[in-house]
Amino acid sequence: MVKTSVSQIKMPLTGNDAGAYAMKQVNPDVVAAYPITPQTELMQTFAQYVHDGDVDTALITVESEHSAMSACIGAAAAGARTMTATSANGFALMWEVLYIAASLRLPITMAVVNRALSGPINIHCDHSDSMGARDAGWIQMYAENSQEAYDLWLIGIKAAENHDVLLPAMIMYDGFIISHTMEVVETLPDDAVKDYVGPYKPAYAMLLDEKPFTVGPLDFHDYYFEHKRQEIEGMEHAPAALAAAATEYEKLSGRHYGPVETYRADDADVIMVALGSTAGTARYVVDVLRDQGKSVGLMKLRNFRPFPHAEVADALGKTKCVVVCDRVASFGAFGSPTFMELRSALYEVPERPPVINYIYGLGGRDTGPDLLEQAFEEGLRVARTGKIEQHVSYLGVR
Amino acid sequence: MTTLKELSRREERFTGGHRLCSGCGAAIVARQVLLAADGPVVIGNATGCLEVGTTIYPYTSWKVPWIHNAFENVAATMSGVETAYRVFKDRGKLDKDFHFVAFGGDGGTYDIGLQALSGMLERGHKMLYVCYDNQAYMNTGIQRSSATPKGASTTTAPHGKLIPGKIHRRKDLTAIVAAHHIPYVAQAAPHAFMDLMRKVEKALAADGPSFINILAPCHRGWRHGPEETLEVSRIATNTCFWPLYEVVDDKWKLNYKPRKKLPVEEWMKFQGRFAHLFDGDGHPELVAEIQADVDREWEDLLIRCGELPPRECREEEAKK
After folding, report:
1. Separation of CA A99 from chain center
2. Residue A2 and residue A16: Cα distance in Å, rounded?
3. What is the pTM of this model?
4. Interface test with A, best of B45, B51, B62, B79 (most A CBs within 10 A)
5. Residue B24 to chain A, least CA–CA distance (Å)
6. Mean pLDDT, consecutive 10-residue segments, chain A of 398 residues?
7. ipTM of the complex
8. A136 near B CB under 8 A
9. Cα-Cα-Cα-Cα dihedral of B210, B211, B214, B218, to 10°?
10. Is the dihedral of CA B160, B164, B169, B174 positive or negative?
């Protein structure tokens, strides 16, 4: 544990409380948001801060999520620090403009409270909303609990606004499982948060200037490609910006945030990979199985975009079997999104471990220790025999 | 009220050399609006002819800050810009005053952008929204919109053997906007340029959202000569198809009453998109229906503007 430079305040917060509290401490210029379960409480809590005068942020109570992201784009293009939050179908309604926010290089930050996409309509957690936008040009980080939801949002702001990056960032936390679960969260004092994120300095003169400045012109085959290439370069700078932001944050908080996090994985024959709250369950199962003398460990994937391929190869390259658990399906693809990305990251590892994929928890289906144990046992069998019987399986489906 | 002489001395902030068609109504509208909007102004533009024709990278026709986001969201985008401005003012980060003007075609305003427009109006953002209404999706090649007049032939509601063009009645967007009870709403047309620019000045002086629906003839879609843009605009007002009026704090006021109300045929016959209604046997029943719609709408407007007593009163009078 690093010695921290500020004394932190312990608060009982749900994920949504933690998100709203981070927003309050940042006191951004503009928030434009539309309520949707399970994000609604975050927006309500923030609206209360605004109406009580705890912040002087301008809150735009838009009439849809499409307008939420559109208004964020307008505000950010005018030079404002801008934040929003959504879930599932609301997130899907933003889809078109998510890409535009990224291509205009506007460092908007957004909490995505993960919820299954319709249809059928469902309000509970899976990652089908945010995973679908993995190529939208946003930084994507998955939080395991309320503490991470709070911390990652602050780190995300700093990395997104880095002038080498200038891309928007979304912070995911699991709907209900995190958003509505109270836990003790260590928060930084207001001043420490303000100093950490600093005053917002846009990279360019923005719209509120008498100088003519054309934002979002028609861009044909003669320039579009170069502009997309520059956007990709921004994302290539994101790992360093995220690392720098996390290092500075660690000095304040004592909490370390890398793109991946391993648990009892160094000598493990089987390493499970999980995102979000399931990583917490997996950590418990690792302990149970270790007590039984089984060689298992965990790699929590925190950053999905940019995908930490080198860190993944480093963490998994020497194991005998990797079990990828993903709370999302990718129809017609060979396995789930994390499975695909991760197998690609392992391609050049000298002795590639076999990788199996479990799709679990769609629509909020409860995924307890017994199910993860089942996945670990299959991983141990593959590690023993070297033979994969089925690459892609489903946990807990009838 | 600025005089024509003063206007003629103002800097052109919407420059020539853009790629809009010669004789394009939207370009004339944009130029007139910008001339009237004195002082610092930020422009938002929905996807459409005006956007694609004026900003092909790395060129721009706009000598003012300008933003394009997407098709359906200029009102929401400009809500964000205007809110950022307001918060910077409140926080003492900005001294200068700015006006905000959003441009959308009828596609981006009557149809796909209607929700964002309504939201912006209801939330009270202080900006002028200008709809340049060319009565179809002209940018993508003359497809029908809810602003397309009944009887017009478009590429998605063409004149066919069975169906003579668009069979649906046009939406009255100006009245829909007026129903939001915003401080200033108007209808204008580019041939009446002093009226149009006076309306822009009033709209920008309003304390809240304002809206001007401006007829923007498109000779490619309407099928008339490029040199006839202002003439077709003039006839639209003289047939009372496109009345000029304003709604100030919910009070309706007529700005122009033709000395002689011309039959709507005179406007329609000017344009190739209605030619099938008059060729050969034509569709006299449809033309009569269109005339009846115009007459009814004009009468409704006169009543709203206090130029005519309400129908019930007149019926009472007649009985006496």
Report:
1. 17
2. 28
3. 0.97
4. B79
5. 19
6. 79 98 98 98 98 98 98 97 98 98 98 98 98 98 98 98 98 98 98 97 86 95 98 98 98 97 98 98 98 98 98 97 98 98 97 97 98 98 97 97
7. 0.97
8. no
9. 130
10. positive
